[in-house]
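just leaving the lab so this will be short. what follows is a protein written twice so to speak, once as letters and once as structure tokens for the fold. can you read through it and tell me how you think this chain folds. thanks a lot i owe you, the record is right below.

___
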Amino acid sequence: MRTILLKYTLLSIGLISTILGALGVILPLLPATPFFILALFCFSKSSPKFQQWLLNLPGIGNDLRNWQTHKKIHKERKPAIYLSVVISFLISITLLIGKPYLQLMLITMMCILLLFIRRLPEY
């Protein structure tokens, strides 16, 4: 009974993470990749069928396969990741003109995220 509950909990978290990841592709402040990585982990423990589906998604599938295999990101992808983070945060910061505390919060979040990405192992 406990393993069935765990399986369905992980499956649910995986599905929710996949939806959030898909939204993150569209919305500037919602990060897509961490949600897809979480979904991949959950599906690997609960549903090989969904795991393979996620690994075969166009656009993100190759990156997820590389993450699953090496736990590293390709060094040539880092500049594009940096650029997308900076652009999305700058858009949000610009939209919050007149709200310096929120702008400062976003700048802080952006710096933390950029440092995190910088520390990810490369291959």
Q: What stands out?
A: The chain has six helices and no strands. The mean pLDDT is 88. The first helix runs from residue 2 to 26. The chain has two domains: 1-71, 73-123.
